[in-house]
Write a structure and sequence with these properties.
Elements (H helix, E strand, L loop, with lengths): L21 H24 L3 H4 L18 E3 L26 E3 L7 E2 H6 L5 H5 L14 H6 L6 E2 L2 E4 L2 E4 L1 E4 L2 E4 L4 E3 L5 E3 L1 H84 L10 H4 L12 H24 L1 H20 L6 H24 L3 E7 L10 E2 L1 H4 L3 H5 L4 E8 L3 H4 L1 H35 L12 H12 L1 H27 L6 H35 L3 H14 L1 H34 L17 H39 L12 H6 L11
Antiparallel strand pairs: 1-2, 3-4, 5-6, 7-8, 9-10, 11-12, 11-13
Helix pairs in contact: 1-10, 1-14, 1-16, 6-8, 6-9, 6-19, 6-20, 9-19, 9-20, 10-14, 14-15, 14-16, 14-17, 14-20, 16-17, 17-18, 19-20
Length: 699
């Protein structure tokens, strides 16, 4: 590309600019209107209760719509039914997966015949809770009750999970048991082994274990949320103090940060070695991770020497890599420090920029909330579909039916034992046929709007920091409210350009999501060529997404400064960077590396503090730490939250450095330091690069 020429009228971000990429702006508005229409239609037809509440065989929600009972018991209260949804509970386990809403799950083994003939008062009345609601005649012969499918032949002890009853299967000393029994009466005079229930309940048991783990984690959050918030506040204060100190002590802080990261990693290596040595000779500590397998109680892994050895090796590798990078890049670090100092001054003059990521975060939360709620309503927009179930041969078996008119139809005349029962949720209208298209549009719009929000934040920050750089007398020549001015210019003139850039990125991201979905579906297939092709495509589109993000970021800076359209800005930014590729590769990446070290220091320090506190190793507050099931729950929460907070603060700094760097390159091409073409860069940068403004003293 051609280097920029001197323009005597250019004094920083252009205020007299026009609207750019109007077509894309119109497309975005139309797409948003369509997205709102899709949301309204989904909210009209959808019913999220289908996700939360179970339904009986009539399609009614348990605990809703006149069915006060809360749980749905599985077909024949624990007997798996082929083709049914895991389990059903009802009059027949062989043909009709009848599900009934019950007030509580069965807690004992019982057959209808034994309940009918029992001398225990209330036994039959208890059993009646698991029969169809219309069953009232307790004196009716058992054979007639079972023939008419009014009650299940048997019930077994069950456990409630997500408002559904699942067999209470457990293992005791390697023996599979339901309740306290290893066999059960199937209600037809035969004894069966409970292992017959195991296959049907495998997934249910995994869910039960997951639920138990989730409940323990939830309990940990309820007793530690206060301390988690304190930890996040400490991370926020540390990030803010760190950035404020960079304004005055950038060089010292960077070197202190580097030393502190090395020391933190060194302590981590020492701690892992101490734990590794402490476990020597203890029973069970030499078991390998492979032999142990997956355990829901993660504390088990901390009693293995191999776990601490793995941690120590990983930390040693990270330590060596960081030290080698620092040795080879030590000269470039000085240049990066100068950029950080300049960015510190810019942020110091525009302190509101540190709070601007909260605005971006809020808008992203709105996008996520709208996408998630629309997806739920679309997925629950299907209608209840009823089908004919019967035990004997019937030509209408499996056909759809309507419960309201089923008893008066020809089906009951030709197939007396047929029943019209709820099968699944579906639909045959045009709306239901195109639900997958609407879901795809929902995902696409989420990516487009999310990228647009991020782009809006980048252009706003770039405009504010560019106004700082191109102020000849800093900060006297800066506008009064640079951040709000940049935000107004971005929305008023460049909504179309932001929509264009975010649209390109959204298309690539949707393609990546589609490829991931195809890869997931092809995992079971034995087609090596297809898997190889998918892997290549995933790699290519991952690289393409990274490149587009890099190009968009620099294009937005050019848009904020010059007010040109997206394509022109992207081309100018790309050629400008290519003309200075060595500076880009070294300075930009060294700066990113230093920001990464800053995040690592904040997250590592807060994480270590949280570890010592929640494991009750700080004697001063040993009694204050709450009792926990898993102490890693609040620790991981604090670590992840600290990283997100530090990332938010440093993202502002990163955008500031990128903007100043691009403006700095433009300054070098436009100006030569003469009285007619003076440099706009700060005295420190001029001194670092051995540049001067002729005839003007550097203050």
């Amino acid at each position: 590309g051609t280097p920029q020429k001197y323009d005597p009228t250019f004094k920083g971000p252009i205020y007299d600019r026009g609207c750019t990429d109007i077509v894309c702006c119109v497309l975005l508005v139309i797409a948003i209107v369509g997205y709102v229409v899709v949301g309204v239609v989904a909210w009209t037809h959808g019913d999220p209760r289908k996700v939360i509440y179970p339904t009986d065989s009539r399609g009614q929600f348990c605990g809703q719509q006149g069915t006060p009972n809360e749980y749905v018991s599985p077909p024949v209260c624990g007997v798996p039914v082929e083709g049914a949804r895991a389990f059903t509970c009802g009059p027949s386990a062989s043909s009709s997966p009848t599900q009934i809403c019950v007030s509580k799950c069965p807690d004992r083994y019982l057959t209808y015949l034994s309940a009918y003939s029992s001398r225990t008062p209330g036994e039959l009345e208890y059993y009646r809770h698991f029969c169809v609601p219309e069953f009232k005649n307790l004196q009716k012969a058992p054979i007639e009750v079972l023939k008419d499918k009014e009650c299940p032949a048997m019930i077994i002890p069950s456990t409630p999970l997500a408002r559904r009853c699942f067999p209470a299967i457990r293992a005791k000393k390697g023996v599979i048991m339901v309740g306290n029994e290893t066999t059960y009466d199937d209600g037809r005079g035969r004894r069966r082994n409970v292992t017959e229930l195991l296959e049907g309940a495998k997934k249910a048991n995994v869910v039960l274990e997951t639920r138990q783990l989730a409940m323990k984690i939830f309990e940990d959050y309820t007793v530690s949320w206060y301390w988690i918030i304190i930890g996040l506040v400490i991370a926020m204060v540390a990030s803010f103090i760190f950035i404020v100190l960079l304004r005055f002590l950038a060089g010292i802080m960077v070197w202190v940060m580097i030393v502190m990261v090395i020391l933190v990693l060194g302590y981590g290596i020492f701690h892992c070695y101490v734990e590794y040595a402490k476990l020597k000779g203890e029973a069970g500590s030499d078991v390998s991770l492979k032999d142990l397998g997956f355990q829901t109680d993660l504390r088990v892994y901390l009693h293995l020497r191999q776990t601490w050895l793995a941690f120590m090796i990983i930390l040693c590798i990270v330590e060596v890599v960081i030290i080698l990078l620092l040795i080879f890049l030590r000269k470039r670090i000085l240049i990066a420090i100068a950029l950080i100092k300049e960015a510190s001054r810019a942020v110091g003059h525009i302190m509101m920029s540190l709070l601007f990521p909260l605005c971006t975060f809020f808008l992203l939360c709105l996008c996520i909330a709208y996408w998630a709620s629309t997806a739920v309503f679309l997925s629950t927009s299907n209608e209840a579909v009823y089908k004919v179930f019967n035990e004997t041969a019937c030509q209408f078996s499996g056909q759809t039916c309507k419960p309201e008119t089923f008893n008066t139809s020809n089906v009951t005349k030709l197939c007396p034992d047929a029943q019209c029962l709820f099968a699944f949720y579906g639909g045959e209208t045009a709306y239901h046929k195109y639900l997958i298209v609407l879901q795809f549009f929902n995902v696409f719009m989420f990516f487009w709007l999310a990228n647009f929000v991020i782009a809006l934040g980048q252009v706003t920050l770039a405009g504010a920091f560019a106004s700082y750089y191109w102020a000849f007398k800093k900060p006297d020549d800066m506008p009064a409210f640079p951040l709000f001015s940049a935000f107004g210019r971005a929305l008023r003139y460049h909504t179309g350009s932001l929509a264009f850039g975010s649209l390109i990125l959204a298309i690539v991201q949707v393609i990546r999501v589609t490829l991931e979905y195809l890869d997931h579906r092809l995992k079971a297939a034995d087609n090596k060529f297809a898997k190889f092709l998918l892997s290549c495509l995933k790699c290519c589109f991952w690289c393409l997404e990274k490149f587009i993000k890099f190009l968009n970021r620099n294009a937005y800076i050019m848009i904020a400064v010059y007010g040109t359209n997206f394509c022109t800005s992207a081309r100018n930014a790309f050629f400008l960077l290519m003309r200075n590729i060595i500076r880009v590769a070294v300075l930009d990446k060294v700066t990113d590396f230093l920001f990464f070290l800053g995040k690592l220091l904040i997250v590592g320090s807060v994480g270590i503090l949280a570890f010592f506190f929640f494991t009750q190793r700080i004697k001063l507050v040993q009694d204050t730490a709450p009792p926990l099931n898993y102490y890693w729950v609040p620790i991981l929460t604090v670590i992840v939250g600290s990283y997100l907070i530090a990332h938010g603060f440093f993202s502002v700094y990163g955008m500031c450095v990128d903007t100043l760097f691009l403006c700095f390159l433009e300054d070098l091409e436009r100006n030569d330091g003469s009285a007619e073409k003076p440099y706009f860069m700060s005295p420190n940068l001029k001194k670092l690069l051995k540049k001067t403004n002729k005839g003007q003293p550097d203050a």
